[in-house]
Amino acid sequence: MGPPKANLTPVSSLRVSKHQIPAHHRIPNTSIQHKPLLHYHSAFTKDSSSASAIEAHLTAVGVVNPQWRYTMYSTTHFHSTTHEVLCIVQGGARLCFGGEENPGRVEASVHVGDVVLVPAGVGHRLLEEEGDEGFELVGSYPKGCSWDMCYGKEGEEVKVEGIRRLAWFERDPVYGEEGPALAV
């Protein structure tokens, strides 16, 4: 018997928040590709949002490879080599996207079952965990991509330029042939 099956909120009923975040200092955010940060609210139903069920679902859809289970770093960082798909599997948290000193930043509360698609270049960090059970994500990246760590520091300019060449999703990493990632 395999892992439990993940059940999805129908895409027609899914609430999605989309955010364009301006560059701030050396964090490019969405200014290079103009693909928005996407927050799928309750994409996975609460009864089917275990880490193993979500990893099996993402693997079956075949767009991204789940690579880790952990919390989010509390230091603002971004990736220049890949977009990132974060699925909340335990607890809740308040996250900051865009850099904490950026007037155009987004602070979002995320909960079990939510999915956040973080475009390459978007700074992100954990502000605070909500609740007592701990906060855990499944982190995934498009097939063939490996992630790097950038912090908006001098010397990262060549890495940041590489964001221009990254392909966007041809299929939604959660919903496959339909889904919010295809409508941007």
Automatic annotation (TrEMBL):
Domain Cupin type-2: from-to ranges: 74-137
Xref: InterPro entries: Cupin_2, RmlC-like_jellyroll, RmlC_Cupin_sf, UCP019307_cupin, YjiB-like
SUPFAM superfamilies registered for this protein in UniProt: RmlC-like cupins (SSF51182)
Short name of any one Pfam family annotated for the protein: Cupin_2
CDD domains for this protein: cupin_YjlB-like
Protein known as: Cupin type-2 domain-containing protein
Originating organism: Apiospora hydei
